[in-house]
């Protein structure tokens, strides 16, 4: 692929995926405001976030099937329109039940802009270009996740949270228009065969793919657990961070924006296995630094933590798609399913560990989960 065309494609993919992920976390920073506005309890208002995640988890496998059978542009158009309409409903409604329902529908259609676009890229691009463009995809997931939080709780004052939905819908519309105009027509990668699409069960039964799924599960389990309980740790007397101070630390997510394209180039040059091992080593160093009772160590540890995790994530996604001859939509849907299940399981189990045994025990348990990324990296080196 020509360099100019690849750069244009990277920009389009980044904008589209970033817009999709911006929709996911938009209510997270203003949950207390929503609780007051709708006069409800914390559990119910939290559904405005968890309903989106549930929708994504339920819809990934069906959209994996859809992406293997239909062209990408109609999928983007239909899915994007549903997300935009539901976003505007969220901005206008005075009913919390309708808000939660609209958020759930948004979650159902977000894979149209994420899982399906990965399948499209893996079927269209040669391996070298795929590595680099997938790096932009991973960077976009980071930028979108951070952008949604900042848009919901910082760009607009909390009491004007409805404006954030309008702004996000507008950004999503612009990204979809750019994708529909700029995405090249699908052309089968010459290095791919025309094998029939395989089933989910057969994909999971292949150890070369399953280890990458488990790598995603363990990696995101580590990542989500640390960031979920970091505010509690930093509120302890040894640090005494305020909520505002802790929120600023989430800007370390920006490391993930820069590390994605770099990881693609590293995988091209040194192989996915070596890249996974480097990411695992960086992540281990970060977890050890997070055990130290010093603010500077926490800051440096979080920067390394994001660099290590997103290196693993980008390398695993690239390795997965290079192994596929068919069934790209199904394979990427499974990856995303394992990814989000890892986050949910990680947070659930970590809550018990942190509550009863503290931060040190939690970090120690998370370090043991690094066995899977390391094992995967070694296996990828052998089968390069």
UniProtKB/TrEMBL annotation:
* Record InterPro entries: MFS, MFS_dom, MFS_trans_sf
The UniProt entry, under Gene3D superfamilies, shows: MFS general substrate transporter like domains
Q: Residue limits of the Major facilitator superfamily (MFS) profile domain?
A: 8-382
Domain of life per record: Bacteria
Q: Which Pfam families match?
A: MFS_1
Q: Where are the transmembrane segments?
A: 12-31, 43-63, 75-98, 104-122, 134-155, 161-180, 212-235, 247-264, 276-296, 302-321, 333-353, 359-378
Q: Which UniProt keywords apply?
A: Cell membrane, Membrane, Transmembrane, Transmembrane helix, Transport
Q: Of which family is this protein a member? A: Belongs to the major facilitator superfamily.
Name the UniProt record assigns to this protein: MFS transporter
